[in-house]
């Protein structure tokens, strides 16, 4: 199975992270469907991008995608997946959501009953192949047309080797980006929580920090 043969759907694709990923995947020649609560808003976003990219409602995008990325706000994450569970059955679902809170001291990881957003997705979608990835990638860099290369590793988590290999290949299509297997779904919490640390780094150093794994 080749990633170039797959249609990539992005639920929540009109937000900064989803829109940035759509931009990069479409630029790499992949077929992309942007999903949103508003199909009209999704169509407007898709029209602003180059390549094979179109807009639809989240439900329509979920139905159209072979690989479906979940890039929605943490609030409403579970409810959306419960609603779309029948449509997502049999599909590869990539959860990219970081359960974070914010206060005067900055960003911090929120507790999740299932352990992580990725594990919550796996619990809600028992008939889907769930993988966690793209948690630590800067939306600012993804959307920056001047950033030709996104120099970061994408930590990929999952219990299905074929599925994690495919998601690693998806990361690899973006210049500078590399998919790295980082463990099973039970290890997703610390990867999602790491985003809070990166936000703190970015604020202190006025940067768009990412992750690089050495000696791999």
Brief overview, please?
The protein is of the alpha/beta class and about 220 residues long. Helices cover about 40% and strands about 20% of the residues.
Question: Would you kindly provide a written description of the structure presented here, covering whatever features stand out?
Answer:
- With 216 residues, the chain is α/β, with parallel strands linked by helices.
- It has one domain: Rossmann fold, CATH 3.40.50.
- It has helices spanning 16-27, 39-47, 58-64, 77-88, 117-124, 139-143, 161-172, 188-205; strands spanning 7-11, 31-36, 53-57, 67-70, 92-95, 100-103, 106-109, 129-132, 152-158, 177-181.
- The strands form 2 sheets. It has an 8-stranded mixed β-sheet with strand order 3-2-1-4-5-8-9-10. Strands 6-7 form a two-stranded antiparallel sheet.
- It is globular.
- The two termini are 24 Å apart.
Topology:
Blueprint: E1 7-11, H1 16-27, E2 31-36, H2 39-47, E3 53-57, H3 58-64, E4 67-70, H4 77-88, E5 92-95, E6 100-103, E7 106-109, H5 117-124, E8 129-132, H6 139-143, E9 152-158, H7 161-172, E10 177-181, H8 188-205
Parallel strand pairs: 1-2, 1-4, 2-3, 4-5, 5-8, 9-10
Antiparallel strand pairs: 6-7, 8-9
Helix pairs in contact: 4-5
Q: Number of helix segments?
A: 8
Structural class: alpha/beta
Mean pLDDT: 97
Q: What ranges have pLDDT less than 50 throughout 5 or more consecutive residues?
A: none
Rg over C-alpha atoms, rounded to the nearest angstrom: 16 Å
CATH fold assignment: Rossmann fold
The helix content is: 25-40%
CATH class membership: Alpha Beta
Largest sheet: 8 strands, mixed
In the CATH hierarchy, the architecture is 3-Layer(aba) Sandwich
**What best-fitting shape do the alpha-carbon axes yield?**
globular
Domain Pyrroline-5-carboxylate reductase catalytic N-terminal: 7-99
Keywords: Oxidoreductase
Pfam families: F420_oxidored (PF03807)
Protein name: NADPH-dependent F420 reductase
């Amino acid at each position: 199975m080749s990633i170039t043969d797959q249609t990539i759907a992005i639920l929540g694709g009109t937000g900064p992270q989803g829109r940035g990923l759509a931009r990069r995947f479409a630029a790499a020649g992949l077929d992309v469907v942007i999903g949103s609560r508003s199909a009209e808003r999704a169509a407007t976003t898709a029209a602003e991008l180059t390549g094979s990219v179109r807009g639809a409602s989240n439900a329509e995008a979920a139905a159209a995608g072979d690989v479906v990325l979940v890039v929605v706000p943490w609030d409403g994450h579970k409810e959306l997946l419960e609603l779309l569970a029948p449509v997502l059955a049999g599909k590869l679902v990539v959860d990219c959501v970081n359960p974070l809170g914010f206060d005067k001291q900055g960003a911090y990881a929120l507790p999740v009953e299932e352990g992580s957003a990725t594990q919550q997705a796996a619990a809600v979608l028992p008939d889907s192949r769930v993988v966690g990835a793209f948690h630590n990638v800067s939306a600012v860099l993804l959307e920056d047309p001047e950033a030709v290369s996104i120099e970061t590793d994408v930590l990929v988590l999952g219990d299905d080797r074929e599925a994690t290999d495919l998601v690693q290949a998806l990361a690899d299509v973006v210049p500078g980006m590399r998919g790295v297997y980082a463990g099973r779904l039970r290890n997703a919490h610390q990867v999602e929580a790491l985003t809070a640390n990166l936000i703190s780094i970015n604020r202190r150093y006025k940067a768009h920090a990412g992750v690089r794994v050495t000696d791999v």
